[in-house]
From TrEMBL:
Protein name: Phosphoserine aminotransferase
Gene Ontology CC terms: cytoplasm
EC number: 2.6.1.52
Names of the cofactor(s): pyridoxal 5'-phosphate
Protein's organism: Thermomonas brevis
Keyword terms, alphabetized: Amino-acid biosynthesis, Aminotransferase, Cytoplasm, Pyridoxal phosphate, Pyridoxine biosynthesis, Serine biosynthesis, Transferase
This protein's encoding gene: serC
Residues spanning the membrane: none
Amino acid sequence: AYNFSPGPAMLPEPVLRQAQATMLEFGDTGASILEISHRGADFLAVARQAEADLRTLLSIPDDYAVIFTSGGATTVQALLPLNFAAPGQAADYVVSGHWGKTALKQAAPCADARTAASSEDGGFRDVPPREQWRLSPDAAYVHVTANETIHGVEWRDIPEVGNAPLIADFSSSIASEPLDVTKFGAIYAGAQKNLGPVGITVLIVRRDLLEREGQPRAPIFDYRAQANAESMLNTPPSWNWYVLGLTVKWMLDEGGVAEFARRNARKAALLYAAIDGSGGYYRNEVATAARSRMNVPFFLHDPALDAAFLSEAKQAGLVALKGHRVLGGMRASLYNAMPEAGVQALVDFMREFQKTHG
Ligand code: PLP
């Protein structure tokens, strides 16, 4: 089946097969990858290779640390002010969907988290244009969500913000196209869309930000301490780290982010063209320039057909198309592991469904 889940999402088949084999026996360790110490040479090699490959894949410069943690993107959102803002300091949030709001909510207990701009009044069908942003002169950082997974709204070009470092949630679009890391103070992503399995989160942070005092926090929540300890202050999610490494390696072998940018552009164009060309049978409500390449929410002209659409799609081998409960309707997530043939199969099914039920 083609799995259009928004995350945990489809993984490449070669990654799953390799993970399956090493689940039983890893190298000459005489043990499963699940059973070896994170401090032993075998796992340290896995962890370091994953980081090195991620640095290659995303062209991460040396003056950025890469930190692997558990807790998901939401935990990063909660720890950003503790690490990078002084007590009571302003932090600006540009909100273009559900996850931007979440980021602000997570930061609010530990910072003067401000909505610098929001497209909520328009139902999150666009990004708030730069001229509407009201940035605080003393902000610790400016936060944006590169791709809103639920609303299907993506920044195609994240604007300059001036002096404060830009921190971006790239959970659902990391590694989908080339990225200029140096534009950002920090980038973070839960792995479960483009980078591998759920249970591990990546934070890419400019090292000078790690020198900020931040606020009183337990050592385990201290990103400087995590960076110094190679993300091993405690037992890391080693299995997830390993499968992330396999996924990153697969992306490199497939041609890297430039190749995925081409594939992802073709996949998104194919699906949006089918929606727009359906004469209103299907519709996507996001402003054309802000339409996500990764998550495509769409609605049938008659919601009474939703159940039939989902069950017939499943029979056709197209699964996890149900939209998020916040929006309803359908959503197709087209991450890197989704082949172009999967999107073609979806588009063919949509045309057929329209013919049968239209
Ligand atoms: N940010 C974005 C853009 C997301 O899509 C998600 C989850 O889907 C999150 C944050 C929350 O991530 P997690 O569940 O890893 O905490």
